[in-house]
Amino acid sequence: MSCVSFRRRKVLHISVGIEQPGEIIWELALSSLVVWTLCYFCIFRGVRVSGKVVYFTALFPYVILIILFIRGVTLDGAGDGIYFYLRPDFSRLKDPQVWVDGGTQIFYSYVLATGVVTTLGGYNKFNNNFYRDSFIIASVNSCTSFFGGFAVFSVLGFMAKEQNVTVGEVAKSGPGLVFIAYPKAITEMPLSPLWAILFFFMIILVGFDSQFVDLEAFVAPVIDAFPGYLYKKRNRMIFTAVYCIVTYLLGLSMLTEGGMYVFQMFDYYSASGLVLLWICFFESIVVSWAFGMLKTSYPFALKAHKL
Fold it and tell me: Into how many domains does the chain fold?
C-alpha cells in the first residue's frame, strides 16, 4: 500500500464530504487523548514544569535534524534536490497566493497573533533585554527553517533520481510533504526504519512542544485575571484539567471520517492567511495606543486625540 493510500484509508479515513462526518476514528481519538494528557502534566503546575520540559522538546529535534541532514546530503541525487531548493522562481512572485502562504508560514513560525510569545515573555525579569531576545528568536527560527530545507530536499532529490523524475514532481507542499513525500522517500533509503523513527519522533516533539505552549498561552492569562482563586495550586490544576477535557472533546469533530474537512475549514478561516494578518494589524494598533507609542512618536496624534 502506498503512502497516499495508507494515509487516506488507515489514518484519515476521509469521507466524500463534510456533510458526511461518519464515525470517530478511535486510533486518532486515542492518540489525541494521550497528547492532551501529556500536555496537561507539562503545565498543570505552571512554568516551573513546562520550562524544564521545553529543554528537551525544543532542543532534541535539532539533534535529529542534524542526523537527518548528514544522512540526506550523502545520498545519491541529493545535489539535485538542494539545487531545486535554492533555485528561486521569480515568476511566482506575481502569484498573490505565494505571498499569503509565505506570510502564513512566518506567522506560524514566530507564533504571532496567538499570544504565546507574549505569555512566555511575561515570565521574564522586569529588566530583561527583550530586544535581544526578539532578535535571537527570529534569527534562530529562520535559520532552523533554512537548515531544515537542506535535510528535506536532499532526500527528495534522492527519491527523484531513484524514480527518474524531477524534484518538482515528488515535492509536495503542506501536510503532503511531511506525511507522504518525505516518508515515501525514507522507505527507499537503506535502514529506512531507523530514519523513519527519527523523523517522526522529531515531528512528534515539535508538534507536542507547540501544543503545550499554546495551552500555556491560554491558561496563564486566565489565571492572572483571577489570581485570588486560580493562583492556588489545586484550583489551577482543576482549571487546567477542565480546559484540556473541553478542548479534547471539541477536537473530536476533526477526528471523524469527515474531520479533515472540518480541520481545513477551521485552519483556513481562523488560523492562517489574511486572518492572522488582520489580527496582528489590530493588535499592533491596540498595543501601540495603550502604551503611548503613537503619542510619543507622533505629536500631532496627541493633539488630534485631545480635540
Answer: 1
